[in-house]
Amino acid sequence: MQIPVYNIQGEPVGEVELREDIFGIEPNRAVMHQALVRQLANARLGTHSTKTRGEVAGSTRKLWRQKGTGRSRQGSRRAPHWKGGGVVFGPTPRSYAQKMPRKMRRLALRSALSAKLADQQIILVDDLSQIEPKTREMEAIIARLAGRTSTLILLPARYENVERSTRNLVRVKTLRAQCLNIRDILGHDTLILPVAAIQVIESILG
């Protein structure tokens, strides 16, 4: 499929051929959802921890005799209903990691890219490597290309000028194309890709 390419002034300067098997498939929403849930789950630390009645500090002696005091029977100061006692069924350190086959992960990325392209939310630019590292200039470029939507800029390599000029823009994020992930694709309204980034994406997902 032929997609128009723009310069940083927002003017069309040509077209580029995109692979149908990456940018033109029928999106598989179930796999996209599974991949997103997996990535969010894998980002969880799982370091939460509580102590049971066997781990908290305190004596285990019986507080008073079983009968004859008029009070309820108690066996230990560590019981959960006492202040400083243990926690019942509390969280313990665990891993939230989920596994997903590589083919399914790549299918999720291809589905997300295809859905974005079908909604006209992917914008190709000829080059971003020569712009000045100024936030105001980058903000103007993004406004011309994508408007005021949240924007993800995929870079083929390290473009320090682009990364520095977008650092203070709230709704803009830069990402290396080799680090492409489902969360960032679905979390931004518009994707801006230099033509060189297309080759990186196709080499990974092709």
User: Number of DSSP helices?
Assistant: 7
What's the helix-strand series? Answer: EEHHHEHEHEHEH
* Physical arrangement of strands within the biggest beta sheet: 2-1-3-6-4-5
The end-to-end distance, rounded to whole angstroms, is 15 Å
Coarse shape:
elongated
Tell me which oligomeric state these chains represent.
single chain
- According to DSSP, the number of beta strands is 6
Strand content: 5-15%
**Average pLDDT rating:** 92
Radius of gyration: 27 Å
Q: How can the largest sheet be summarized?
A: 6 strands, mixed
Low-pLDDT stretches? none
Structural account:
Strand 1 and strand 2 form a beta hairpin. It contains seven helices and six strands. The model has no long low-confidence stretch (mean pLDDT 92). It has 206 residues and is α/β, with parallel strands linked by helices. Strands 2-1-3-6-4-5 form a six-stranded mixed sheet.
SSE blueprint and pairings:
Elements: E1 2-6, E2 12-17, H1 20-23, H2 29-42, H3 102-118, E3 122-125, H4 135-146, E4 151-155, H5 160-165, E5 172-176, H6 182-186, E6 190-194, H7 195-205
Parallel strand pairs: 1-3, 3-6, 4-5, 4-6
Antiparallel strand pairs: 1-2
Helix pairs in contact: 2-3
